[in-house]
Amino acid sequence: MTAVQEFQKTHNAASVGGDVCVVLNPRSGKKDTKPETPDLCGMIQQSLGGHCEVKQVSRDASPTQLANQAIKEGYSTVIAAGGDGTIAGVATALMETDVVMGVLPMGTFNYFSRGLGLPEAIPEAVSALGQSSVRTMHIGDINGRIFLNNASLGIYPTILRERESLYKKWGRNRITAYWSVLLGLAGLKRPYHLKITVDGETFEKKTALAFVANSAYQLEAFSLEGAEAVRDGELALYLTNATRWGELARHSMNLIRGGAIHGREFQLVTGQTITIEAARKNTMLIARDGEKERMTAPFKFTLRRNALNVLVPDPA
Which one is the CATH code of 146-304: 2.40.50.100, 3.10.20.580, 2.60.200.40, 2.60.40.770? Predict the structure, then answer.
């Protein structure tokens, strides 16, 4: 029995209408958990209806480029199959259009898809997409570039650099990702002196990390305050109170265990517009949904409201 036939036995068909393009990142996730392309398209056609095509991300074709191509070709639904970076790339093309985005979780943490209520197993996630409704969502913006879950400056981009190196050596998994946190913290030389303005109120802070969140699910996963503010249409800014390596390592372990506390490990500020400047630094490395790039200060964080149409599973 093929994977598609097995899927047909256990999942009911439901169509959201129109043809579907899947933007697949073959480098995301574990190879042995990803279905072959024909099987994936077969499952999607059974669940969502319409024609299905898979476009694969490569060095010459980014998720954003492939999603833009799908828009030009007239697809009404584009499914991002990959990690949070792949999903953000597809969202960059689809935001403020009528095209609907679906998500298949194939990354390490899958915060965005888990926040939507999607299962992490691909057959179950495909089935859930077929039993979904379209909802509009707010998208985070930093200096004109978007983020779905978070954007940050400071020590976190260094952690991502360590993570990429470890992934190449040991493969993509959550244990490796957590280990990269400790190695990345060792690269801290001195804290940053930041000037921060939140909804018109300005203050200064010495800190090793400024982390802006737009995912209530991710915050709740780490038992952090601020999720309700995000649901209410605000961004949540976290500023670590640690300024030395030992403090950062201890605070990071508390965060992983879900025991980080506002006022002890970090300072929390929420608002709709956040601007950050760093003393003596015109450019800094910025992390957005697991991807990193250098940007020019000041760094302005805002929300693009109701900018993205997303398939969200209906309540059971």
Answer: 2.60.200.40
